């Protein structure tokens, strides 16, 4: 039996509701796969207990990004922050990097919210997936009403892409460059009457390669994605997207991945459909990555009577489906093509599905409203764990081992204060390279790295780092040390400075070891934690190499 389901990101009949959430109409109703059961499951009368969740850190089980979409309110909600830092390795801004948020008038860009999110991410060892440079939805009115010929539209779009991608160059892992440019039948959105895309209408399909080309020119290292909904089950639509990718590749236009949004309903689509769709992306040559960018699993089958409770039995069905989806991803997508898996929200209460497509109670995510973990989190984790992605050493003592030798890059070490930090290829304690710290204007300035979550309470660590003054003829003899700065955040706002190595007087000419044993006595998750090396003399430049921390036996 076939069932008509509305799977698009907006629904015409509820336009008035959606205005409030900044979304506009999507005109298409599309058919859902055949095998969807429409019989509502009977509610068990007495809900049994929810199954136990023992996951200590989802991200610790994966060797690819485990992401979560977050609202602006994350920045002031410490309960939310704790869960994000504990379980996820990547953030997507749910709304604050969209066209309307970032470009409110033709001559004004608003970077404040994105800046704040990036600072939070960087302070907490999270990478960021940029969402989104070009989309037909959530665009400012001035853009929608823009008048000009094709060239003017291209220039306007390229200016948007270039300005934002340049602003964040080097700081993002990935960008959704273009979102939702296809119809369900695989044609371009805007190519048929009633479709809606100012970009297609005013520029034609070339807006897509143009946007990718501009993004690449602005940020040479970020991975560039095409992102869309229903690709996880609609093969006509995915075929259209793959044709576009093939054409872009043939024309030398950069594209690194396809994002499957994956706003889906429990047990629908079925896993064999999901696997077949993933396989199509995996088979693209030259290879590109596949990322699940916006996963949520709605418990209400649209059209059925709305569920009023989330029972233990339903939670088990959802847990199994999360397990199956993650397992399918790991089965089908080879390691070098895994862009990661992002869930679209942290707790059920914060999910957009509470008001989209109509206000309904929903339970689509991995955490309950109060941020306690759901069985779905266990399902997700069990699939990761079964695949043994991380070596046992790393899972047992997730962050007990820390080593930077600066041989390939700065390994996320960066400047503290006004200092500059660069990779030095002419000096090394061991190997070929080290880090050069220069341009300091105060004692506390130097080189630092965020290490939130690295230390476990009541463990002792052996700490070692090597330093050398950059000027062999220098007559200054600064005292140098490695310190851990922990900030406990909004609650009490305290900052602690913990000496990881005893201060050592450094004389020019030789590499000098900084060593110490550090006992971690703090049991709370820090708001921010940074390791840093400083020098008691204000302006001296120095090299740092081979920073290592091991669990003391
Ligand atoms: C949604 C957000 O979650 C809502 O808060 C907002 O009101 C509307 O947009 N596809 C996308 C996302 O690419 O940007 C959408 O996010 C969900 C559908």
TrEMBL record:
Coiled coil stretches, renumbered: none
Which reaction is catalysed here?
A: Endohydrolysis of (1->4)-beta-D-xylosidic linkages in xylans
Q: Which UniProt keywords apply?
A: Carbohydrate metabolism, Glycosidase, Hydrolase, Polysaccharide degradation, Repeat, Signal, Xylan degradation
Listed name of the protein:
Beta-xylanase
In this chain the GH10 domain maps to 52-383
The family classification in the record reads: Belongs to the glycosyl hydrolase 10 (cellulase F) family.
EC number(s) on file: 3.2.1.8
Which domain of life does this protein belong to? Bacteria
| Organism expressing this protein natively | Paraglaciecola aquimarina
Supply the enzyme class, top level.
Answer: hydrolase
- PANTHER family in the record, alphabetically? BETA-XYLANASE, GLYCOSYL HYDROLASE
Q: Which InterPro entries match?
A: CenC_carb-bd, Galactose-bd-like_sf, GH, GH10, GH10_dom
